[in-house]
Amino acid sequence: MSSILDSRPALREVIEQVAEVTGYLWQKGWAERNGGNITVNITEFADTEMAALPALAPAQPIGKTLPNLRGKFFYVKGTGKRMRDLARQPMQNGSVIRICPDCASYEIIADLPVMPTSELPSHLALQDYLLGTGSTYKATLHTHPIELVAMSHIQRFLRPGEMTRVLWSMIPETLAFAPLGIGIVPYKLPGSVELADATLEQIKEHDVVLWEKHGTVAVGTDIMDAFDQTDVLCKAANIYMCARSMGSEPDGMTPEAMREVQQVFHLPTKRPC
Length: 273
Description:
Elements: H1 9-28, E1 37-41, H2 48-51, E2 60-61, E3 73-77, H3 83-86, E4 94-99, E5 105-110, H4 120-132, E6 139-143, H5 146-151, H6 162-170, H7 172-177, E7 182-185, H8 193-203, E8 208-211, E9 215-220, H9 223-244, H10 255-264
Parallel strand pairs: 7-8
Antiparallel strand pairs: 1-3, 1-6, 2-5, 3-4, 4-5, 6-9, 8-9
């Protein structure tokens, strides 16, 4: 069977990177069964032939109107599909969708009529915001990082800024490579418009957002970038838990030490340590 990737090597490279990342998610235990989702803006690879491809299934509503997405193209993980399977066969476990002129619905155009993730409204709302702000970010990643989700079960870490402060203080690289910290969204029904709206508010200030008792959403220039952001924060959470398991609250870096890192590496300082 022919694929939309056959004559588009640059697009193939993007999808192969998606497959690589999904393999990492499975290996880390962040993608049990069909857990987690990915959306990547691939509009830059769309030519006239791709734009003319017929829909493989009836148009589906998004659940909200997203004016910046008119005519845009995305690769999305399929609903009910496993990351470990997507790592081997990305075009059998995901699909390419085109946003319709009404900006409120989408069509599947390749390779197979694989229905997108149920959390597509959250992903597309983020993509709409990114395009509207002129961001270079093109990828959104939702996954279930064990340590970060575990921390969201403790009320202390749901207070504004507290989880960011603790994670930053565990190792200098966390502050250097995740300088925007982590946003918190109180529990909301997975796949709901309410979850999408709450996530959008947090992504205005953070590259990674934690859904209470659920998982994370990250944005990046590509899917590897979004993965790296999540991985750095999860490593810090792991360090915290390892230290905590030894019987006491870890000291962490001092506020002065963290400010020094911010100054030396010219990092954002809009949120206090």
